[in-house]
Known about the structure:
alpha/beta; eight-stranded parallel β-barrel; 10 helices; 16% strand; binds flavin mononucleotide; oxidoreductase activity, acting on the CH-CH group of donors, NAD or NADP as acceptor; FMN binding
Amino acid sequence: MTTAFDPIDLAGTLLPNRIVMAPMTRSRAYGPGLTPTASTATYYAQRASAGLIVTEGIQPSPGGQGYPDTPGLHSPEQVAAWRTVTDAVHARDGRIFAQLMHTGRIGHPSLLPGDLVPVGASPVAAKGSVYTAEGPKEFVVPRELDEDGIRQIVDEHVAAARNALAAGFDGVEVHGANGYLVHQFLAPNSNVRTDAWGGDAERRARLAVELVAAVAAEIGPERTGLRISPGNPLGDIEEPEPDATYLALLRGLEPVGPAYLHVVEGPDRALTLELRKRFGGVFLLNARTQGRPSGPEELALVEDGTADMISYGALFLANPDLPRRLRAGGPFNTPDRATYYGGTDRGYTDYPELDA
Ligand SMILES: Cc1cc2nc3c(=O)[nH]c(=O)nc-3n(C[C@H](O)[C@H](O)[C@H](O)COP(=O)(O)O)c2cc1C
């Protein structure tokens, strides 16, 4: 029987186990120019025993930033700073992919430089509010991307993927989940376009397909992954019939052949299994757990074949040596929500290892 502690071949790279550190925004890019810091390098290096680390969401361009103090991957200074992070992870025999996250309408003009405004598939504001330096603010109506604007978004992701390799990353994960820009194109309530980028499932899936294809053409499909969250209502997304959309997406991705698909599971396990059946690459699952973080229970999903790899968010945040602790059956440090976003090294680099 295959277990989560067995190695796996990720499109030509051998990973020592099937436990993934899930992408987690930490809002600590305090360096001038939104660069990761020395603490960031320590934080990821501490977690290098993961089969694969996926970084926090990184904006591919200044306009893609939706939260304070999130790092970018669009300037030479950022590339140099990320190099210290990837070097630290590789020095401990880890592997690290950069998550490219463009937040689209989930943002605010006050978070963006100059006169940039949030963009989206359609001029439909998300219900709710965003955390800014001046406290919570209502989401605004995003500027609808025209054809040139969409091309620019694709180009920005390609450039950021190129920068990721220059910074020493092993690959990139395109963020198509959790209500951000790519998801805003996938979902029918945030994408009400009637052109070639909206309408039926194929058209709503087109941006995701073209983005992944363009990134894969630049850095290689073996270095390209995609994260999706079918039916996830985060960011005021409504997907009453996700099956058609996500099966169209997988059909579009067939000729591209990205290394992995990372599914944030929604209410429908049957859809998870269908996606797994139809996807040719490695299948990463962030399982639906309802009210508790993913834990040792989820290891069985590798054993029963539901997924090739399991990703852990909160538990990996709080347990730098998570694979070892999972193998031992615990104990686990408890994640401290108060230090998730921003702050000092407390709740960042000071979670102890098992025998520390
Ligand atoms: C502090 C924090 C920040 C997160 N930031 C991101 C992010 O930047 N990108 C992303 O795709 N998911 C993000 N997530 C979601 C996680 O990747 C994961 O899907 C979620 O925590 C559920 O998994 P878990 O039960 O193992 O924690 C974040 C989660 C947490 C706890």
